[in-house]
Amino acid sequence: MHNQGIGTWMTRRSMRSFDDLAVSYGDTSMGYRDLAERIRRLADALAGRGVVAGDRIAYLGNNHPSYLETLFATATLGAIFVPLNTRLAAPEIEFALEDSGATTLVLHAALRDLARAGSWSTGVTRRIIVDADAYPAVEAYEEVLASGADTQRDVPVQPDDPALILYTSGTTGHPKGAVLSHANITWNCFNAIVDYGIHAEERVLLISPLFHVAALSMGALPVLLQGGQVILHDRFEPGAVLHTVESERVTMLAGVPTTFQMLQEHPDWDTTDISSLEHLTCGGSTMPERMLEAYEARGLSFSCGYGMTETAPGATAMPPRMSRAKMGSSGIKHFFTDVKVVDENGQEVPAGTVGEIWVSGPNVIREYWNRPDATASAFVDGWFRSGDLGSLDEDGYIRISDRLKDMIISGGENIYCAEVESVIMEIPQISSVGLIGIPDDRWGEVPLAVVALKPGQQLHAEDIVAHLTGRLAKYKIPKTVVFTDELPRTASGKIRKADLRAHYAAGVTPS
């Protein structure tokens, strides 16, 4: 085949896995042979409607088999897939469509109003709707797919050709489109397969949105590459997750600490059979010790990891057997990836010294879409500058300190928010916390903690300060603690620090 990208994966896999289950969603399951045929038909139908290599096809929808079908059909034609965050507002959708130059938009029926508002003034000329009938200027997805022939189109695609444009979360300013090549995706899958031991009998339950690279590239794609089963949930509901883990004998589950906390606190936790689980992966931040203990009591351990969109996304992974010995760390560099920590001059720093994390490897992007300025500033001699602060220990395990932009400088002292948040999360009444810097006439900035409590719990600011006193240097202890019902989060579960700063920067009354 001339197509050396990911577009032929399912046809190749169907020759090996035949009717083994590939994708399940609700009451519907599909084997590899059927999945491959649907991808071929969709690719042929899109080609018949004028899609050619290099075109951008956007997708606005929650987890659904059509997401994976559209991704692989797009790659089959040498076109570029542009997944859109369903939590964006219409102007943000419009920006991504305009910036990417997408001409085709696949959308879910539940999001038609958002799609209409976000795409009407863009260059999108072709709209295809999932789970709904056609209407003027919009075709029905199943009708489009059925119109295509079951033929394998073999468009020349090189490994370094663009496969996806993934827009960063945009928590500050306009997002940038990270261009992931077919090679980036493939090597990231190799990393996941080697370091997580993903195998052909894998059954991964995806509860995080596929429009984020972690669920797609650390869950769906490596499992499909190996011939396992991908089970899709279109939203996170703890009770439904526990039921599916038991009924489908799920082997692999990924999320952020909040995800696993909500599962552990659900009334069905103690009575659900979760013995099938082999791989638990946690990203976003390190797992609090009390959560490690709760899962260890059920015979489970975690592989926490560190990464970002630009690394497709894996940079490091924690071997599960080291999760206790290296608690607080985000593991070692992935098998085919290199990581180093440098000072402000780009020189590697000694073990234990905090510096900026740089990453290189075949999974790391080469560019941002139409942003040569951002590309130039992000790379030094082939190394991607993450903008994250961290340190490596003598064994090569990395500990993340914070984002450079989130670091608080108070009276000339650096305060790494992740460190303070980790100690605050030791308090059992607390559900989540976000630490930010707020202006201070004397110190320049001082830390403020925004705290959400578990339902029915009570706590005072003085209790938190007392817990931190003696555990952290005085300058690291929040000068103000405020309580809120819920912290603002991105779709991937990360706390939106920019929102907290915007809300509290003017100053608050201490709690």
Average of per-residue pLDDT values? 93
Q: Give the strand content.
A: 25-35%
Main-sheet strand order equals 2-1-11-10-12-13-14-15-16
Helix content: 25-40%
Shape: globular
Give the N-to-C terminal Cα separation.
65 Å
Q: What Rg do the Cα atoms give?
A: 23 Å
- Assigned CATH architecture of the largest domain: 3-Layer(aba) Sandwich
CATH class of the largest domain equals Alpha Beta
CATH topology type of the largest domain:
Rossmann fold
Which residue ranges are poorly predicted, with pLDDT under 50 across at least 5 consecutive positions?
A: none
Q: What's the tally of helices?
A: 15
Question: Any idea what the CATH superfamily of the largest domain is called?
Answer: ANL, N-terminal domain
Number of separate domains: 3
Biggest sheet statistics: 9 strands, mixed
The overall strand count is 26
Structural class: alpha/beta
Describe this structure in words.
The protein is α/β, with parallel strands linked by helices and 511 residues long. The chain folds into three domains: 32-157, Rossmann fold (3-Layer(aba) Sandwich); 184-403, Rossmann fold (3-Layer(aba) Sandwich), CATH 3.40.50.12780; 407-504, ANL, C-terminal domain (GMP Synthetase, Chain A, domain 3, 2-Layer Sandwich), CATH 3.30.300.30. Helix content is 29%, strand content 26%. It has a nine-stranded mixed sheet, with helices on both faces. A hairpin with a 2-residue loop joins strand 1 and strand 2 (28-31). Helix 1 (9-17) runs antiparallel to helix 2, helix 2 crosses helix 3 and helix 4 packs across helix 5. The longest helix is centred in the first third of the chain and has 17 residues, at 32-48. It starts with 8 loop residues before the first helix and ends in a 7-residue tail after the last helix.
